[in-house]
Specification:
The chain has 301 residues and is an alpha/beta fold. It has helices spanning 16-22, 24-27, 34-46, 58-68, 101-110, 130-134, 150-160, 190-194, 204-214, 224-233, 244-260; strands at residues 8-10, 49-52, 72-76, 117-121, 139-142, 167-170, 173-174, 177-183, 277-281, 286-290. Strands 1, 2, 3, 4, 5, 6, 7, 8, 9 and 10 form a 10-stranded mixed beta sheet that branches.
């Protein structure tokens, strides 16, 4: 249950009969007995998931989690919808242009079945809000804007100081594929992964460092010069519209597996902790699970 009552904009209207009917088709893949299936579904029902960033991946994921049977969400995003969001983001339509993303996603998600508690942080994640946001979360999804540094660090610090939160997944889209980064209490800290000082200005060198640490496999196409124009000159991460649903699906699966404990079954491939990662690319149709650092320069800039 979410204890942050002042942020709780939507309160679940519980309906046990409807709940078990609407999640019924998921149960067949959750265990060898009805008792095992129900016990795993109860974990989804009771967990609190915080989604920091409700854009193309985080916004859709909020709805996916509710359809999976998650009944407690915390949503944070300071941005408002603009026309460029229409290529990929739930809520990016003429009706919602200029409106806060977290508030719109909360409204649309609650409308599915009114059986979810949703706390909303329309100011997004900041050093002032991060601790409260993380406070009662079991799992946290870092889907914040690519260029966020200080606020992202604040989120991760709050996570590391939380006794309850188990892990952070960060799943960005890149070109025609997606990465899965997993942070735990024993993984490398994000400050050390990025190698960027918290107060660093977004200079070209800092942005290129971000690119290096978030995109271990820099795409060969388009050219490096064109990518520099987007990331460095325009300070706008390009996102192909077909890719966010891929990332959302991968994230929903890995999160649900972690919550239910299915990821501990024999034969399951674990996502390595940072600095490791998993990567799936639709162009080459390849998957990679990588352990250890992929960079050589540990100098902080």
């Amino acid at each position: 249950m979410i204890h942050d009552k002042e942020r709780l904009l939507y309160v679940a209207e519980e309906n046990e009969e409807m709940y078990w009917e609407r999640v019924n088709r998921s149960l067949g893949w959750l265990g060898n007995t009805e008792e095992e299936q129900k016990e795993r579904q109860e974990r989804l029902k009771n967990v609190v998931v915080g989604i920091a960033g409700t854009g193309g991946i985080g916004g859709q994921l909020a709805q996916r989690l509710v359809r999976l049977g998650v009944r407690n969400l915390k949503l944070a995003d300071p941005d408002t919808f603009d026309i460029s969001n229409m290529n990929r983001q739930m809520g990016a339509d003429l009706e919602h242009l200029g409106k806060n993303k977290a508030e719109v996603v909360a409204e649309m998600t609650y409308a599915i079945n009114h059986d979810v508690n949703i706390a909303v942080y329309p100011e997004g994640i900041t050093p002032a809000s991060a601790i409260k946001f993380v406070e009662d979360c079991d799992y946290i999804l870092d889907q914040m804007d690519f260029y966020e540094i200080a606020n992202r660090y604040a989120l991760h610090r709050a996570f590391r100081n939380s006794e309850r939160a188990k892990l952070i997944f960060k799943v960005p889209t890149v070109a025609h594929g997606t990465y899965i980064f997993k942070y735990t209490k024993t993984s490398m800290k994000i400050e050390d992964v990025y190698g960027i000082k918290e107060d660093s200005a977004l200079t070209p060198n800092v942005i290129k460092r971000l690119m290096e640490r978030i995109i271990p496999h820099m795409p060969a196409y388009p050219s490096a010069e064109m990518l520099d124009k987007w990331f460095v000159e325009l300070e706008r991460m390009p996102i192909f519209a077909a890719c966010p649903p891929l990332a959302e699906g991968v994230l929903a699966e890995k999160l649900a597996q972690a919550i239910t404990g299915i990821d501990t079954l024999p034969g399951v491939t674990q996502i390595p902790e940072q600095p490791g990662y998993a990567f799936f690319d639709t162009l080459s149709w390849t998957t990679e699970v990588h352990s250890g650092k992929w960079w050589t320069d540990d100098t902080k800039i």
